Amino acid sequence: MIQRSPLTQAASTPEFRELKQPLGLKEKRVKAALLSSMGSVDEDEENHPSQGYKRLSHHPTKEELWDKMRSEAWADAAVEPALAPFLYSTILSHTTLEKSLAFLLGNKLCSPSVLGAVQLMGLMQEAFRSDPDIIDGAVADVMAAKDRDPACEKYTQCVLYFKGYQAIQCHRVSHWLWNQGRKALALAFQSRASEVFQVDIHPGAHLGKGILIDHATGVVIGETTIIGDNVSMLHHVTLGGSGRARGEARHPVVGHGVLLGAGVSVLGPIVLGSGSKVGAGSVVVTDLPPHCVAVGVPAKIIKRDLKKEPVVTMDQCYDFIPDYVI
After folding, report:
1. Boundary of a domain, candidates 198, 230, 254
2. The Serine acetyltransferase N-terminal domain covers which part of the protein (predicted)?
3. What distance in Å separates the CA atoms of residue 177 and residue 242, rounded to the nearest whole number?
């Protein structure tokens, strides 16, 4: 008889594997899956990405973020007059972050043969009004880029130029459409985003807040994937499925605060424990406990440290060779 780990057993509960419903419609199942991935941390510290999203003291509110973005746009327009029309149309002509994002992404995704820019802008603003969590997630994702990516010097840099950020926000809208039962439109939306950004996220996948997809090219996230808060990943990450049963979880659960290096593949309905780190090029096919370091093909656990929060340091090299001997 095959022994299943506690994480896999938790991910197999009825709450997690409820049939005949899209995964995004069952919030309790998402919570149950992420709860199964969590470990303990030192409560004396303020920042615990592996325990879920929390707005930190240095993070601006949505309104403060928008004011900072407008100030940055004015400064950039003064230094680079050639960019002034672009900065005016995407930021300075708008009164809110929601309208700015709708304009920017609508014009990115528009296509003569699928959806026009005006249609897409209206659709996005409808989603933002209907579900405030979408724009809350967008704000949290900006903070993630500013905190974790040393190349991100300004908020506008992330919003205007980082295709990983833009792909995530498009997914948040397509996921909203999917959960509304508007699957045909959600899939059309996702298809255009995949063509434009080279990032393929199925609209059924659940993404938490504070997500960073750095560089982003080649990222693939399958339909029943659950990604917690504060997750960071690099280009060419695959969160892929195993099996062909419809209505069941076929893809991974990625816990809060997980770091996935470039080219990582995670296959099947397995659970990556919160605060874990997977080295570049690794292939993960079994559960990982919280706060571990795994590397290799197939990935093997080489270290555990309950105090480590890998997305804070974004260190993709340390701990991978614990006993190097020449």
Report:
1. 198
2. 65-170
3. 25
Residue 68 makes CB contacts below 8 A (sequence gap 6+) with 60, 155
96-143 pLDDT per residue, tens: 999 999 999 999 999 988 899 999 999 999 999 999 999 999 999 999
Q: How far is the C-alpha of 148 from the C-alpha of 150, rounded, in Å?
A: 6
User: Tokens 């571990």 identify what position?
Assistant: 292
DSSP state of 82: G
Same domain, 226 and 101: no
Which of 205, 296, 283, 169 is CA-nearest to residue 237? 283
Burial of 243-274, coded b for 16+ CB within 10 Å and e otherwise, reads: eeeeebbbbbbbbbbbbbbbbbbbbbbbbbbb
Which of 198, 219, 249 terminates a domain? The answer is 198
Alpha-carbon distances of 154 from 19, 68, 70, 130, 143, rounded to whole Å: 44, 9, 11, 29, 10
Sheet holding 226-227, edge to edge: 206-207, 226-227, 253-254, 271-272
What is the extent of the structural domain holding 322?
1-49+208-326
Tens of pLDDT, residues 230-276:
999 999 999 999 888 777 789 999 999 999 999 999 999 999 999 99
Q: Which amino acid is at 236?
A: H
